[in-house]
UniProtKB/TrEMBL annotation, chains A, B:
Species of the source: Streptomyces rubradiris (Streptomyces achromogenes subsp. rubradiris)
Record carries keyword Nuclease: no
Highest taxon of source: Bacteria
Domain HTH tetR-type, first and last residues per copy: 1-61
Keyword Coiled coil recorded: no
Protein name per the record: Gamma-butyrolactone-binding protein
């Protein structure tokens, strides 16, 4: 790994574990096995690293199976849920977005970008006639992001995120009858095979 | 107000503003206008105050209008959403439950108690034949708590919780077609009159 990538990973691990307030540049440098000088050569502050991690999301999440509309929205949230337990960059993002004072500008707000991606999927689902008449796609996209945020917060202390995929699937099973026409709801697939296909 | 109540309120305001890590006992005493000695006479640590605030929730939330089943579940979440912007104890609870390391035991976990209350309402709704066949009431109760948690987190930096009632109403409007039979869904009422009736 290049030094910069090593530093981003070390920062992500530190933010995920200690939050923004509990993280110091020297703690990051130490975890990266680098001197403070090397650290400051690449990043001028922990805030710069935090912003980089937040603005990079949700790019680390790419569902491996090709899908469209409703199934793509499901795959995106499942990929995130399966990826989170082992991905410090996603964990840091999930934690930093809660430290609200520093990271409220729209361009570092990952909730907002997630909502935009899900809205695109739901609009595509509408064009594919998967949605029930009268569904408010914007409201539903916000609801999905809110519930994933809430589920992630409850999942961490209980199971270190291990139960997150089950919570996301459960969310969809509750929501689908409101969102999708029965024929489209019946076709939606869940489970680890949606996100692990690429590595088989 | 008695000294103890003054201290709880001062602690709630401080936790809501600075989080658990950013709060010190002297900051609480100062805000309460009391000496450190007076503070320690009542509470031995900031942790004791934090636990008291968390275990007291959601008791501060009581919908003023009499209702049952689905409407009671709606009223409970609306009362919380309208109350939060002006209630430091609820705000502190909302923030402290995110500081996961310290407050993960079931009896201080307000998410868990909220889920239990909503489950009771949904089970009552089932007995009143308000629910669609096959609705998983436990999963739905968890989904409602997750989305309220997520909505609250996004609402604070954007609007200091002012848009929270609209977000909660939007959540219900998305969910109701999945939860309720059409006749019951149509009867559900929203809006400030559900929670302000008592003060009129």
């Amino acid at each position: 790994m290049r030094t910069r990538a090593v530093l981003v990973r070390a920062a992500a691990e530190t933010f995920a574990e200690y939050g923004f307030a509990g993280t110091t540049v020297s703690r990051i440098a130490e975890r990266a096995g680098l001197t403070l000088g090397a650290m400051y050569f690449h990043f001028k502050s922990k805030e710069e690293l935090a912003r980089l991690i937040l603005t990079s999301q949700p790019e680390p999440v790419v569902p491996p199976l090709d899908s469209r509309g409703l199934q793509h929205a499901v795959d995106l949230t499942l990929a995130w849920a399966y990826e989170l337990p082992g991905n410090p960059v996603l964990q840091a993002g999930a934690r930093l977005v809660l430290e609200q004072r520093l990271f409220t500008e729209p361009h570092v707000n990952s909730h907002r970008r997630w909502t935009g991606l899900l809205l695109e999927d739901l609009e595509q689902a509408r064009r594919r006639r998967e949605l029930r008449a009268g569904v408010d796609t914007e409201a539903c996209a916000r609801l999905i992001v809110s519930s994933c945020t809430g589920a992630q917060i409850q999942s961490r202390p209980k199971t270190s995120y291990r139960d997150l995929p089950a919570r996301v699937e459960e969310m969809w099973r509750c929501l689908l009858p409101a969102l999708a026409v029965p024929s489209a709801a019946k076709k939606v697939r869940f489970g680890e095979e949606r996100v692990r296909a690429a590595s088989l």
